[in-house]
Amino acid sequence: MFCCCIFLAVSLLHSLCHFHVSGYDPSCTEYPVFTPSALVVKYGDPANVTCVVCQKDCSGDASGLEHTVGKVSQNGTTMFWTVDRLTEWGISLHCYYNNDAGNQCTSILNPTLYQPPESVSISFVNHTEMMFENQQYTLQCSVQNVAPVQSLTVTFYRGNTALGHLQSNSEQKKPVNETFTLNITPRREDDGAQYWCESKLELRPAGPQRPPVVTSEKLPAIVHYGPELNEPPNPDVITITEGDTLHLNCSSVGNPSPSYTWTLPLNSSPSYSGSVLTIKSVGFEHEGQHICTVSNTVGTVTKEFNIDVQISSIPYIIRGTLLGVLVLVGLSLGCYCKRKQRGNYKLSKIIVIDTHRLFFLMGFPRKFRFPGWMFSISLSQREDQPADPRPQLIKERGPPCCYLFCSQFITDTIWPTNFGLGDFFLLTNVFSFSFSQRNYLDTMLSCYLFLVISLMISFRDVRVSASGSNCTEYPVFTPSALVVKYGDPANVTCVACQKDCSGDASGLEHAVGKISQSGTTMFWTVDRLTEWGISLQCYYTIDAGVQCTTVLNPTLYQLPESVSISFVNHTEMMFENQQYTLQCSVQNVAPVEKLNVTFYRGNTALGHQQSNSEQKKPVNKTFTLDITPRRKDDGAQYWCEAKLELGPAGPQSPPVVTSEKFSAPPVYYGPELNEPRNPDVITVKEGDTVHLNCSSVGNPSPSYTWTRPKNSSSSYTGSVLTISSVGFEHEGQYICTVSNTVGNVTKEFNVDVQASIPNSAAFPWIWIIVGVSVAVLFVLICVLCCLFYKQNRKGSYNLKDVLRFPMRTALPLQNCENI
Q1: 247 and 190 part of one domain
Q2: Quick one: 51 and 190 in the same domain?
Q3: 517-560 pLDDT tens trace
Q4: Could you tell me the pTM of the whole model?
Q5: 235, 534, 606, 657: which has the fewest C-beta neighbours closer than 10 Å?
Q6: What long-range pairs does 86-89 form, CB within 8 A, spacing at least 24?
């Protein structure tokens, strides 16, 4: 009896479980189908949709399409919904039919109503003035009156570079105003960049093929930053040879443009305010520390130059050679005079020279210290003549040669000049003594030594005067720098001198043009300047016979005739992360050393290049730049810009010539999956809808191949595999293979189908019916068992006979008698 009850309970539970699995409305063998399956409509536009209620299970009579707006017409089991102007937000369409079991089989369509933004604007949050490098600022993009906001994507841009993508987390269906913010930290290369934002409604796949896009105006940014030196740090000491040219480069970049202040050694030239200090002929007065201070409103930097001037060996070689030649000539002259000697003569007034001042005059620097009284020069004077403040050597019975070389040259040529010998000779003692006939050569050599030293002094003094040390001022050009376009007229004014104008000679040397003069002011004009590499030399001559000159070198420039851009040895497709070379060709431009070429992709600068050629005449120049394209560069436009940087004297807006915009070949790259990696197993309930998303990006557009379980339906070639009503036959592994000409990737989906839980409203009634059934069966079994137990309590019975009891066949009479 107990075993029978257990068997019955297990059978009932098994039937209950089977009823639970089949409880997902098994009476609906199909569901209504909308065409299109998803509906996206712009606010105010007409819309229509078709619903096929059923195709097989159409035995029921009741079917329809519930709607709040629009009209519905029906043709058999097909219904047509139309609306002339859709303006209701959040509507839904219910298409249904009733089957024979009395159940309603329904499909719901929720149309998406969208409205592009009325306006999009960009601004900085709480900031209207200048920006500073490496400080954080907040960009704000305001989108007005857009719906649905959850489909809105906002992208911030700097030029053509995307800075960030943002989306709203609002689920509002009606139009709203939404504000998006992005923090940025500008750098100096962002100075002059334009910021803007773009709003895009991502309504695919049922939406417009080109998503509705609205962009803001472009907001220019000015980034201020402190000065930064262009040149690397200097060595501790800059060693240079006397007479060489020295360039101290303190050039820097900064915004606003920096100013320069130089602190020079005390004995150097007056102050200077340019970025590059040029000393054409370095002297010992330039030795020491030069400090350059660069400053703007943001900050200040300094750069130090420690100059050590060394002696030039070339002038001393020349002087030594001259001295040796003069000594040889003097010895030869002495031998000649010895043969001519016929008497003797007196010498007096010995002059001793301060050798420290003497060697300074001969060109040695002050740091040379020669010991003692090195030379003594003897000069003679007639005893019967009054004293003459100028030492003279007068012939008595001396040789004619001595009179010629000593007396005449020294007294009439060297001494009266402006060499300043009286300031440098120190008269220490006067001696009177006589020499005998045998020491006339000593007298001659003393005279000759004075001649040699005087010549060396004059040589040194003339060399210094030639470098302009006696010039108290120099001619001044107005303008100080001249920049002229090829073929244009030009003019310049030169004031030769204003104070030291005692000399008569002044002028302006020129190769082209005309000169007119008014006093010491000269005017140079040319109607059409076409000569390359000319120079203008304005000068005046002072009383010492020294010419004071200023040179002006006009800069003649010519804009490029053409600028073109292309790829080097490449015309076909490009592949991501491979290197290619851009080439910018500039034709017939001058001066090429002032040319600056910039490569662009869209509005993004890729690199700046300059020529190292010093050619003044027009030339053709080619610049190259290596690039590595990325997938986002597909369809980008490349171009280059040639700019002549002619400095402050040139045009305020530097002349610019740009190339045409060159559309690059397509950038090919292998497929890449959009969705993240799937979980190991995708669990779904029977009857639910599942979407297996294998969408990807690639160029060329990838193709999709699906490998499905054996018991599943036929093959599929789309990017998203949708199963509307999942059954146990859909359980298993799905493999999606995405491929194009560059490569392929695969994605696996492991689907596990679970039994569906019955409808919560019907669930209690099912258990009540099951419980009552179990109770009735249990009572019935107990009654039957009791009856059969009484009849057969003295014998045995077979359970099969009990089960056959309900049959109507009568038992044989003899069997009853036996009982």
Answers
A1: no
A2: no
A3: 888 888 999 999 998 888 898 888 876 567 788 889 899 999 99
A4: 0.41
A5: 235
A6: 86/41, 86/43, 86/44, 86/45, 86/46, 86/47, 86/111, 86/113, 87/43, 87/44, 88/113, 89/113, 89/147, 89/173, 89/174
